[in-house]
């Protein structure tokens, strides 16, 4: 992997809460700070595309994300995305040939102690370097085929269909 291209779209991983989980905004992408703190041994670039909760991502937004990734020279792309509509975006990105694309996010904001953000990012970084071309989801310590996974909202985790 020469350089990892990271595309950010918002989601819980970048949320800042102002009260008890009701009033929030999507803040600056956290992945660069996380990778710098961890001292990773690879080069990366961060391209913020949108800052939205994934429930508010539209078909036009997904096309914008797809076009931005397709335009990159990088063969390895990590996408941070909200978990609620991650599967839908992954299916759109599956139309991009010749790249390994891994989507990840967090069930708790990266700014929160005990967040799953760092673990999910680490899983995604390993996956994007080792998997063949295609689109994958890295959540809950597993790598998922977007056509065979769903988010279980009640259990707050991803699971096989």
Q: Describe it for me?
A:
The chain is α/β, with parallel strands linked by helices. The chain contains four helices and ten strands. The chain has helices spanning 31-38, 59-70, 86-93, 117-130; strands spanning 3-10, 15-17, 24-26, 43-52, 76-80, 100-104, 134-139, 142-144, 149-152, 157-160. The strands form three sheets. The protein has a six-stranded mixed β-sheet, sandwiched between helices. The longest helix is centred in the last third of the chain and has 14 residues, at 117-130.
What class would the helix/strand composition place it in? Answer: alpha/beta
Radius of gyration: 14 Å
Instruction: Please give the count of helices.
Output: 4
Main β-sheet, spatial strand arrangement:
4-1-5-6-7-8
Total domain count: 1
Q: In total, how many beta strands?
A: 10
Largest sheet: 6 strands, mixed
Shape by Cα distribution? globular
Question: SSE order, as H and E?
Answer: EEEHEHEHEHEEEE
The CATH top-level class label: Alpha Beta
Portion of residues within helices: 25-40%
Please report the distance between the alpha carbons of the first and last residues.
31 Å
Low-confidence parts, pLDDT < 50 over ≥5 residues? none
Percent of residues in β-strands: 25-35%
Mean pLDDT reading: 94
Instruction: Kindly report the name of the CATH homologous superfamily.
Output: L-asparaginase, N-terminal domain
CATH architecture: 3-Layer(aba) Sandwich
Reported by name, the CATH topology is Rossmann fold
- Tell me the quaternary state: single chain
